[in-house]
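=== RUN LOG ===
request id: a7f3
mode: sequence -> structure
chains: 1
length: 120
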Amino acid sequence: MIEVLPESRYNILGVKGIGKLTDLDYKNILVPRLEGMIKDYKKIRCLFLMSEEFHGWELEAAWDDAKFGVQHRNDFEKVAVVGGPRWVEWGTKLAALIMSGEVKTFSSEQLNEAWDWVKS
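=== RESULT ===
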């Protein structure tokens, strides 16, 4: 499940991943929200918080994530990835290679620092 965080404003979107993310999470929540923001602001900033209950992506959701990232690789100014298992950090570093914006990982304890970085 994807939960939009209350700190989201203007060109900044914060989301929290809970459980296992599904294709419907992307199609019904995340992609429409991101596309609307890109249309309105051209460049956006995102924070993705992985809760302790985060268990990754279903295969189709992982494909949705990769496809959207490639299609919009020039539309992100900053992406902060907070928490999650160690393999997420490696995946984030790989994703950073194709994105034109900055991508940075933070530990769960650094959530406030991540928000400060995304907003700066």
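=== NOTES ===
The beta strands are 2-4, 12-21, 44-57, 76-82, 102-106.
The mean pLDDT is 92.
=== END ===
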